[in-house]
Amino acid sequence: VNGGESWAHLPRPARSSIRTLRISQSYGFDSTLLAMPQDGGLFASRNGGDAWSELLGTDIEITDALATGVDGTPLIVAVVQDSSVLRMIGANGEWEEAKGLDKAMGGGVVWASTNDASILVVDGSGRVFSSDDKATSFRPIGEIPIGLDGKRGPATSISSFVAPDGTEVIHASTWHGGVVTSRDGGESWRPSNGGLTKSKQADDLNAPHFSRIAPADDHLFLAGFDGLFRSDDRGQHWFQLETLAVDLPTALTVSKPTGKREELFITTLDAGNYVGKNRGSEWQTLNLGIKNTHQWSIRSSALDGDTSLVLSAANKSIYRLVN
Description:
Elements: E1 6-10, E2 18-23, H1 27-30, E3 33-37, E4 42-45, E5 53-56, E6 62-70, E7 73-80, E8 85-89, E9 95-97, E10 108-112, E11 119-123, E12 127-131, E13 139-143, E14 155-162, E15 168-174, E16 178-182, E17 190-191, H2 200-204, E18 210-215, E19 220-224, E20 227-231, E21 239-240, E22 249-255, E23 263-268, E24 273-277, E25 282-285, E26 295-302, E27 308-314, E28 317-322
Antiparallel strand pairs: 1-28, 2-3, 3-4, 4-5, 6-7, 7-8, 8-9, 10-11, 11-12, 12-13, 14-15, 15-16, 16-17, 18-19, 19-20, 20-21, 22-23, 23-24, 24-25, 26-27, 27-28
């Protein structure tokens, strides 16, 4: 059932549950992993998750963070709830507060371009800020548009792909407004919601209707409270993957190492992890080695050669997928 793959338990960085994991966009360069506990703080590993160090204390609530390499220099950017954005340059640098942002951001999500050195932050009210100086300063450039049911943001995740003409197309999933798309670096956005559905239960539980969007070769996947969706025309139209007979997907990630087929990994509220192939038409459970199937986060990154790094977080545990 698991195709010979199982999960290896890693040391946990904090006592509380891990809400979000991040793999550096420059993992081959800086080997950095980030973990954000439910009760606050930010932890980093630079050896594949075998050891962790505290970057920010648990008295600081982080809504999102990323690690990347800019001009050969490691960079970590963290979005702080009810405050601003912090950045750290270098593996042992000091935290600095970014300029150009107010204290009423209400948290948000952060994304770094793969085409250039720009960084976007979408705050809790849907405002979009951009930086082109390694997160030293930001400037307001736009706003997430009103989406489904006449509601706006906030964004829950941001991803991108490079179109055949070289344009970096940015997609953002939002709490209850569906998906929005930008083709000009985040200055203007348009809704991309055809076929998406919502569940009233998400509002009752104060949970996001749409939690994570991930691009693949020529299509997109979206994890929603009402199910898992796929678009084959880059977000113009969506349909629900009816073949996925599992509980609520809480996160998803797509990986395609060189020479291998694309794999879609999802984690669910109560049924653990699954791996999907053929654009999500074939599924296998992926829970060997996991003690708790109440999952919150899953991330993957294609490494050099034909391998992937896949991490999953379940309550107070972190796991790494091994063959």
